[in-house]
């Protein structure tokens, strides 16, 4: 198949997971705003459509020749998707947030005098940490149990309760997505300065990994799990 300007980033990532790397390169949102046609992102970012599409399709052609196992999320039950999110994203995230927070604080304390951008990074990261922790707890304790109940005993009343809850969660996703974009901007794409110490470099590497995991996490919830309902 060939991707065109009419395809959405969210659907492209479902078919071709590695495309998320290209979308990050061009700052194209595939999770929170992933349901807009590519044409809109190209116009917004002032990108040359054919250049990006050629790169995307060439990469997909090469990737298709390799042996990859792509999960068909549309064929999975709600419970299977929820359990995957819990084990793959929620549990590791709740461990990583406080641990990485200590690194962010340490780097700011030691290098904030010569790198003033670290103060802003420290502030945004801690806002992000609180938001993600509260968001994850709400999903685990309120929303996911409702979804599992709906799968067993569907009803319009239960579906409406889920939709109302999801509306708030998607707003949260937009907020944390913007925080991640701001952290990337502040850190210059998570590239440490020349004089960075080991802890400084580890912090930026872990922030980049956190961004990757969170965008995949949000994509799976917004564009697959929530969309199902």
Brief characterization of the structure:
GO terms for molecular function: metal ion binding. Residues 87-229 form the Hemerythrin-like domain. The chain has helices at 9-15, 19-25, 38-45, 49-65, 78-111, 117-152, 156-186, 198-228.
List the helices and strands and how they pair.
Blueprint: H1 9-15, H2 19-25, H3 38-45, H4 49-65, H5 78-111, H6 117-152, H7 156-186, H8 198-228
Q: What are the main properties of this structure?
A:
single chain; 2 domains; 0% strand; 8 helices; 229 residues; mainly alpha
Taken in chain order, the helices and strands follow as HHHHHHHH
What is the radius of gyration computed over CA atoms, rounded to a whole number of angstroms?
19 Å
Query: What overall geometry do the principal axes of the alpha carbons give?
Result: globular
What proportion of the residues form beta strands (DSSP E)? under 5%
Task: Summarize the main sheet.
Answer: none
Number of domains: 2
Helix content: over 70%
Report the total helices. Answer: 8
Total strand segments = 0
- Roughly what is the average pLDDT, rounded to an integer? 91
> Structural class from helices and strands?
mainly alpha
Distance between the termini: 28 Å
Q: Are there runs of 5+ residues with pLDDT below 50, and where?
A: none
InterPro entries: Hemerythrin-like, RIC_family
Main location: cytoplasm
Subcellular location: Cytoplasm
Pfam families: Hemerythrin (PF01814), ScdA_N (PF04405)
